[in-house]
Write a structure and sequence with these properties.
8 strands; 216 residues; EC 2.7.4.3; 8 helices; alpha/beta
C-alpha cells in the first residue's frame, strides 16, 4: 500500500502514522527523518541538504525529490510506504508522480486529516514531548499517567518553544494556504480521503482503516 499522509500541525499525523505503519506493515517515510539520517551518515545528498539548512534556507525541491527517490528504492519500500511531510506543494507532487512512474509504481491513496484551526491551536499549545524518545502527549486530550513523565520511557516531558498561540496560528495558516492546491490536485486524481480529525484518536484511526478498506 503506497500512501501519503497530509494534515496541518497538531492534526495528530504522528499518532496516526504509527498506527498505519504497524497495521499495514509499511515503512513510515518522514522527510525530516531522511534529512537527519543522510546528514548523520555524511552522504552526498546529506552534505548538500546540510549546506542549505545551515544557512537557514529551505532545501530546494529537486534535492528533496532526489532524497525521497533514493529512500523509495530501498528494499523495505517494495511492499509499500507511508510518506509524511512530502509532497508539500503541487510542484513536489508532480515530481513524485514522475519518480513513481519511473519506478513503475503509483500511489494508492492520500489521507488528509482535517481539523478546524481553533482546535489545532488548542492542541498545539497543550502538546508535550518526551526529551528522551520524542513520544508526544497532550495535557488535556492525551495526558501522561504521571504529570511531566513519559509513559513510554519515563523521560522528562517539555513544551516546544514554538508551541505558543501566535506561532502556531501562523504555522497553520501557512500550511493551509500551501496545501489547499495539493489537496485539490489529489482530489482531481480521485485518490484523496478526507478524514475528520476532530474525533478521538481511536475513532480517527478507525475511519482511516475503513476508508482504506477497498485498497488492495
Amino acid at each position: 500500500m503506497r500512501l501519503i499522509l497530509l494534515g496541518p500541525p497538531g492534526a495528530g499525523k504522528g499518532t496516526q502514522a504509527s498506527g498505519i505503519v504497524e497495521k499495514y506493515k509499511i515503512p513510515h517515510i518522514s522527510t525530516g527523518d531522511i534529512f537527519r539520517k543522510n546528514i548523520k551518515e555524511g552522504t552526498e545528498l546529506g552534505k548538500k541538504a546540510k549546506e542549505y539548512m545551515d544557512k537557514g534556507l529551505l532545501v530546494p525541491d529537486d534535492l528533496v525529490v532526489e532524497i525521497v527517490k533514493s529512500r523509495l528504492t530501498e528494499e523495505d519500500c517494495k511492499s509499500g510506504f507511508l510518506l509524511d511531510g512530502f509532497p508539500r506543494t503541487v510542484v513536489q507532487a508532480e515530481a513524485l508522480d514522475q519518480v513513481l512512474e519511473q519506478m513503475n509504481m503509483s500511489l494508492d491513496k492520500v489521507i488528509n486529516i482535517q481539523v478546524d484551526m481553533d482546535i489545532l491551536v488548542k492542541r498545539a499549545v497543550g502538546r508535550r514531548i518526551c526529551k528522551s524518545c520524542s513520544a508526544t502527549f497532550h495535557v488535556e486530550f492525551n495526558p501522561p499517567k504521571l504529570e511531566g513523565k513519559c509513559d513510554v520511557c519515563g523521560g522528562e516531558l517539555y513544551q516546544r518553544a514554538d508551541d505558543n498561540e501566535e506561532t502556531v496560528s501562523k504555522r497553520i495558516e501557512v500550511y493551509l494556504n500551501e496545501t489547499k492546491p495539493l489537496t485539490d490536485y489529489y482530489s482531481k486524481k480521485g485518490i484523496l480521503l478526507n478524514i475528520n480529525g476532530e474525533q478521538s484518536i481511536d475513532k480517527v484511526f478507525e475511519d482511516i482503516v475503513a476508508a482504506l478498506g477497498s485498497v488492495e
